[in-house]
Amino acid sequence: MPLPLERDSKRPAGKLLRILVADDHDIVCAGLQRMIAAQPGMEVCGMAANGTDAVEKAKRLKPDVAILDMNMGGLNGLECARELRKEPPECEVLLFTGVETDDLMRMAFVSGAKSFILKSDVRTHLPGRGAGKAGRRRSGARPLPGAGRQ
């Protein structure tokens, strides 16, 4: 199953995949921005330091993908994902977390996230890094169980 950061055949040639990054640690946001900027076909269209700001920026900027920290102020990643299902609903959510548990995966799916990536894996597993085509399962981003179902 394709993950949110996979280049999409519906995307016009030359159109960059627009990504919103939300994390309450400036250094994490800056690092993700650098990694994404180095990927062909991708750009960071906005950054947010808390969940409330992330939802507001997503509504205004209409990103293709939002990478959301699970534990940030205002709204957490799960709460943001629920809000982004409403507006803009076409925005895919990738949760960025330091922990991986079955409960977290279940809650993430219910909230509307399509996949997640562990913070410890981001250097080698940011979708598009070392994977031939951005976002394939082998890239390290993990699809959530049932995320492809309607």
Any key phrases for this structure?
Rossmann fold, six-stranded mixed beta sheet, 31% helix, globular
Structure in words:
- The protein is an alpha/beta fold.
- The chain has one domain: 3-Layer(aba) Sandwich (Rossmann fold), CATH 3.40.50.
- Helix content is about 30%, strand content about 20%.
- Strands 2-1-3-4-5-6 form a six-stranded mixed beta sheet, sandwiched between helices.
- α4 (about 100-110) links the parallel β4 and β5 (about 115-120).
- α2 (about 50-60) runs parallel beside α3 and α3 (about 75-85) runs parallel beside α4.
- The longest helix has 12 residues, at about 25-35.
- It is globular and about 40 Å long.
What can be said about this structure in brief?
By secondary structure, the chain is α/β, with parallel strands linked by helices.
Write the layout of secondary structure elements.
Blueprint: E1 17-22, H1 26-37, E2 42-48, H2 51-61, E3 65-69, H3 77-86, E4 92-97, H4 102-111, E5 115-118, H5 122-125, E6 142-143
Parallel strand pairs: 1-2, 1-3, 3-4, 4-5
Antiparallel strand pairs: 5-6
